[in-house]
Fold these 3 entries.
Entry 1:
Amino acid sequence: MQTLFPWLILLLPLAAAALISLFTRPHRDLSARLSIGAIVAGFWLTLLLFALPGAAAQAYETRIPWLAAGGLQIDFGLRIDRLSLLMALVVTAVGGAIHIYSYEYMRGERRFSTYFACLSLFTFAMLGVVFAPNFVQMFFFWELVGVSSYLLIGFWFERPAAADAGLKAFLVNRVGDLGFLLGILLVWSRLGSVHFGELERRLAENPAALGAMATVAGLLIFCGALGKSAQFPLHIWLPDAMEGPTPVSALIHAATMVAAGVYMLARVFFLLAATPHWPAALHFLEGLDALEIIRIIGLFTALMAGLIALQQDDIKRVLAYSTLSQLGYMVMAIGLGQPGPAMFHLATHAGFKALLFLGAGAIILALHHEQDIWRMGGLRRAMPLTFWTFLIATLALCAVPPLGGFYSKESILAHAWHQDKLVFALAWCGSVLTALYMFRLVLVVFGGSPRRPRDAQPHEPSHIATWPMLFLAGLTVLAGGADVEGFLAGGAQGTASLASRLAGPLAHAPFVMLAGLAATGLGFAMAWGLYRGAYRDPLPARWSTLASALRQRLLLDAWYARWIGGSFEALACLASGVDRWIIAGAAVRGVHGSVELTGRLLRLAQTGKVSTYAFALGCGVAALLYWLIR
Amino acid sequence: MASWTIYLSFIGAALLLAVRPRDMRWVRGLALGTALAGLVLGLAAAARYPADPAAPLIVLARARWIPSLGIEYYLAADGISLTLVVLTGIASVAGVLFSWNVERRAAEYFALYLALIGGVYGVFLSFDWFLLFVFYEVAIVPKYFLIAIWGSTRREYGAMKLALYSLVGSALVLVGMLAAYGVSGGQTFNLIELARGGFSSGFQTWAFPVVFVGFAVLAGIWPLHTWAPTGHVAAPTAASMLLAGVVMKLGAYGALRVGMMLFPQGAMVWRPLFAGLGVIGILYGACVALVQRDFKFVIGYSSVSHMGFVLLGLMTLNATGVGGAVMQMFSHGIIAGLLFAVVGRMVYDRMHTRDLADLEGMALNRVLPFAGLTFAVACAASMGVPGFSGFISELLVVIGAWKAFPPLAVLAGVGIVAGAAYTLRVLQKSFFGDHPRAPVEEMGRGQGLTWPERAGAVLLMAATVVVGLYPSLLLDIIMPSLQASWMQAMLKGGQG
């Protein structure tokens, strides 16, 4: 059972995707049921694996030979340990809720069955990343995640914006993946294995095995996370990815796929933490280690995205930048050398951010696809259930006790405080921003009076959509009681009592906790002052330069489009011109032309007149005689 | 038994020319039957390989042919040949299916088609250099007529360019062949014996580039690639499928089987140059493909880019890279066939345009949903999405290149990113640029795909998926062949 269950968890969604796309596409309901059934079954099987005695305690693997070429031997296997089980639980629980919600949200869609096929394909790919026991298999599924994300972002490909967003997401991810692939190759060529367990063992035996390339290898692998988890400077795809259907944004671009980068970093943390060492060419970087760079990038992304989120008017884009910012916190936690808290925050964030997106989806549906928050307002009375679940998720995101988000974020902040006071101070500023942009959202959307056309009568979605929201709200409330860090660290469960864990932050780091609460309070107060009953955003009037820079996403997207997109295009045109005019034109035609020219010149001699030939003959004889007699 | 792939193809061609059945069903049936028989024979031979790991070569036929010159009729197969024989089988069956609508002079068309196939099988199974060269030339002639008679855009120009390039390549190969024959003592053209005998390093240093370039012209090596896009565009659908799918592999196969196997030291000397040209081909093909307006030119230049991976893989001179290159030959053969089938048969024969700007306004995905699915799968396979053969083969090439030339591996990786860019662009413009200029119902009237098109597409898609999911199917026959003693001399150089 211990080997059968993981295979089932992984393969059921694949089977569903295959069945739907091959057979059941005309039957909408059946297709949806297959897809939902596969992931819900996966959820229960994961729970069973947790419950099986000893299953979670001992890491184990199951594998079949897959590929052997030269010195490279790769198995296709599954690695079941605490880390992968936790992540599988997050994916199937949050994913299951979102699958069910999709059933309601996508009801009127022409390609309803195709949508579920793509969703199941994504689930399969994501679970493949989770259970991968080696780098090559992880890369395989990593790319597959990118493809299914492309399919789902561009699901409404009739809209140019959606098609372009899918393209952008895929290409930006590919850039990151290139670094990831090179990192894998570097590790493999130095350590002679791609298997995680084997790599860890070899590195433990000989910490200097990576030699001069240790830091470079770590950073190249981090490039993969840079793309998938949308960290600066590859963050630009995530906000555009909001062109996809809202449940997709909830599942892929909030809860799971973007978390894959953080998960991967946690999985290969031993590589990142290897003794820092630079090759001679990069000697001037000596003293800077990979984790330090990861920490800086995570922190920068968290702050930058938090700032940009302040001035977004599209409800989904606010949430997208908020996701970026929270991912920044997780990456920063990895950079602080703390994969445990990073995974804890990943788990809680998956729940409450998915909940926020589902709430946003309910609002968008109720308002007939209106996404501008300044045309909402007063929804608290019209949609009370959505309001309360949205509020719970907001409070969790702003780290208000005793919700799950509080514990995970406090844990990260506490580690930052112990290691680096500057990082802590900046992260604290990020917390203020989080509270500010989230309460701005809540106040503008739900508070005040309605700012929409009078005939619109918003109402709650049906039960099929509200149950998943309630389920996620329940998870968000209860997550604080889960001892994720302890579980990952391998300690026996239930050593610390629930009460002592819940009071943990106060006992361990009272200052950090109070500072965190103060940040949330400060952000809330600023939002209350600025946005209570507001009809339009007051910031552009007060700080116009800053606000417009934030609205244009700090000009990064435009800059990328002009310089990188433009120069690539120019290069392509240049190559095409070279091909047409120089290689095919001058060289090939040149050869062709000179042969033809020779022929034409020789033809001039063939006049057909005997006198010409006689003259030529005479000249020839004269020349010959001259040469012989001389 | 595998040698019957050659004989059957020529017999089929001769029968078609001799009988010239009036009924189109007989013509097509005969062509399809012949191609299917070849595929079955190839698969059967591949399934039994390697019967004995100690003997990586299966001798199929051996007889003296021109004893005074030491020329033998020597047919044999190892895993590399068999991989390409299976590829030829699959591509030829699919090509017949996609030629189902050829009405004009159909008997001659299929006869030339089968003759081309027979020549290709012959090249892949010859272990006598002279015999290989004969089959190599045999394959060029039908190709010229297929393009010049049944082709489309600028067909005479395309056919002439292709023929001239092929002949220039052949001339180089001929020079190398005669020189090697003379230097080795004028006893034999047997490739294995020549390889065992060995050549002086001085001779190898000049013979290798001559022979390698001679073959690599047909593999589309940069800058001698320009025949490929024009030839592909000019050729009728099935011929461009074979051209990109199989004929370009002739070049790569010859470069490996003859150039590298006989002159391993020469390969060591020259490999930085040719690996560099391979990488230039990868990047250059991708860049040019990005800005093409003709649908078929995009695919044509993508072939140049993908064949760059083959050349790079060969020049790594290590088992992973060379194995990856052979796998990439297979993979690109299938995928290019699929892409050309969609462009030439499914789209062009119905819409009569290949201009991407025009296709954007045709809502093709809704008019031809099955073609849209096929093209999406082909594009996914082409840009190396996991689960398709291209992913594994390009990964193996990059891994092999990493061992030999790390900077080139990085550039090849950049080529994979650029590959995604042009592939997704053409995918969106062709099928998913959903701004119909006329009602969809009107455009789609009476244009559903026929069963041969569906069958051919399914065959090719299945091939790339099966190999992509379980690459050992191919690797388990390719890798043992690289262990043969006559291949090891070449691979020893690539370990560093």
Entry 2:
Amino acid sequence: MGKARIFEICSEYAECEGPLLPILHAVQAEYGCVSPEAEAAIAESLNLSRAEVHGVVSFYHDFTAEPDLRMDVQVCRAEACQARGVEAIVGAAEAAAGERVAVKPVYCLGLCSVGPAARVGDRLYARLDEAALVALVERVA
Amino acid sequence: MFRIEDHPFIARQQRLTFARAGRTRPLSLEDYAATGGWAGLSRARRIGPEQVLEDVTTSGLRGRGGAGFPTGIKWQTVARAQAPRKYIVCNADEGDSGTFADRMLLEGDPFQLIEGMAIAALAVGAHKGYIYVRSEYPHAVAKLEAAIALSRDMVAPFEVEVRMGAGAYVCGEETSLLNSLEGKRGEVRAKPPLPALEGLFGCPTAVNNVLSLTAIPHILSEDGAQEYARLGIHRSRGTKPIQLAGNIRHGGLFETAFGITLEELVHDIGGGTASGRPVKAVQVGGPLGAYIPPAQFGLPFDYEAYAAAGALIGHGGVVVFDDSADMAAQAHFAMTFCAVESCGKCTPCRIGSVRGVEALDRIRSGQARAPGPVETLPQMHNARKTQRSLAEDVALLEDLCETMKFGSLCALGGFAPYPVLSALRHWPEDFGIREEEMADGL
């Protein structure tokens, strides 16, 4: 992870007020994580302490310290999807996930009247039953 | 022949905020202008800030995010504040389960939000607006960015920018949202100072929900404020986009004037549960909303009526559960959610929610807790040396909920007791408590 590239990303947001979150999103998107080295480089670029940057990175669920090479299938596990039976089908999806897919919980995808719902990348899937969710996981793998 | 327009779900709606969404092309300026778009903004420019504030106050519009604070008063506070820079912030961090009205509006009619923000900016004298959207809504972010680029000239010199959240539920709370926008941890700030006086970057800021801001263009149309104020009941004026969700046959967005009852919503309009089983409970207002039993379905949709019943309207999400739901598990989920999503700023929420989960674990397992090694030390004079009974554990949980309710800085810790206590009160049998034990003063 090049320090120069991180500086470049930071300079793209030079005009922004309060640029830290957009920068972290950009770094997370490019490297799949915000590593300690990236934190240090961002801190240097924004004239913040490393502790301040680390505090922000560790606060939000979207930023991770290490890359996860597995594909993400986010399954909505909030109350509305619970009422539509997501808890009964998520076990089968986790079993089907194997080593290549990470089935992660999310609260929530805003598809509360057509759950259970899942998200892969920017694609959303609704009205899932066990077979459809397992098929989705297998397709992603 | 049966026409879809005659179905109660369509026929009984009164759409003001959602008049356009789903009927026009979301990113077509032509469609927007042809359906009355920009009329509110041009009238606002004509009548000036004072009259705009007057109109918004007359309409009786209250914050649609859940707190129900009068929008007109909030705007007046920002307008009267003396500062070189002021901001409009739109809260589109719709994290509550069972709510999706913001998402539908952002995706279906983004120009209306931009127009509402431009009117707000004119009223309070702000130069810049931010829309804080959660990262779980990628399509809404894309639509908004496109809409902002297309409508730049229409709202100039006012500027709007979209910012994406990063998966923290608490950032839907206005002060933690402001911290997040500033690039900080999304920790709640103590109030006062109110964001209206010291908000984003310390400047006066009007923080409004998507649905509050999108009600504005209609209110600012000719006679719009009076028409808006005529709808609704008591101090809840205008229309409320209600979201029917969960285990319901006809789910979706249902906009209507305040005053409709849950009975009408769940049975007449929603058609009962999707599973066909009897309704056990509905949760109104997201993960922090109370569970309401069918016996109370006569409750009218009204901020004060809900508050009096120990419930809240929140963002208007109605999640239906059938009789297979375990309310003790739902109470446990609510506390766990609070523990995971707590920002950590205040003790009642940070520690109280964890202790609440532990107490619920004990109650649900029916296992009384023996005193721990520290509690049995001779120097711990005030600690209990005997086992706690189920009744005592329940009393402890209720006491803890009381502390969280009144001691937390924001609504996360303050409202997390609502689902827990309502589940405990109405469905004690799910917690393994017999009715006569409840009658004995639990």
Entry 3:
Amino acid sequence: MNEEQFLQHVRTQLDESEQSLDAATLSKLNQARQKALTQGRKPAWIIWIPAATTAGIVAALIGGNLLVQKPDIENNGQSVAFEDIELLMSEADFELLQDMDMLEVVADDAS
Amino acid sequence: MAQDHHASLNHFLASVERRAYRMAHIATGNPDDALDIVQDAMMTLVRKYSDKTEAEWAALFHTILQSKIRDWYRRSSVSNRLRSWLHWNDDEDESDPLDELPDQHTKNPEQRLRLDHATDALSAALHALPLRQQQAFLLRNWEGLDVAQTAQTMGCSEGSVKTHYSRAVHSLRATLEDHQYE
């Protein structure tokens, strides 16, 4: 067997091993992917704060020209995370912020 | 737009996860570690690079995956050395989960993996390669990356890629010539 035949044989076996993964492994891979897609989209630095003060802090930060990365906004890749502040928000509050139109305005201003 | 982006990212990750898992499994010899590495790589891509174009995702994911594998190897090496330092007087017959970690300097595939047939033999032979040779071989021969792309993914020179790849091919042929490759 020459080298090219050997390498082709290896590729074929590797392809077969990839296609023959068992159902349990495939399920775990699917779970890992879903987890990455869900959790990977959250900002790296968030601090939980009471819901009542969330809007106030956001308004202050916007006034200070700080930018919040909205995961679902197409912003040409320009975003600034909170480097010095850790904000924890409830899931409901975070979803609220995602829906707030002012974040789109801020992101547009920054771009 | 956001939904389409999410769907595209999901589709891309679904297209690479199996091969990524096989590569990580070959490298670590442990299915759980392999899963952790793949999930970690996916998480990093989504968190840091999901705003890149779809055309860039493949190269980014390859680079992240290989970096995670190298990190795992470094941690394993430290663990093995620490274990040796702390337990050098222990009874050698005592089982230790760390014994299952691959040792880059004295790998023996027969001690690490069950060899049942040709695919297992191939996996074991790849697992026994030094990491850089293993990465170069899989990226060049299985992923189909050219020398320049492989060098970028591995973070080394093109000359190094060629050397690692050549040595890997030589080692694998010598190891596998008795396993249905003639």
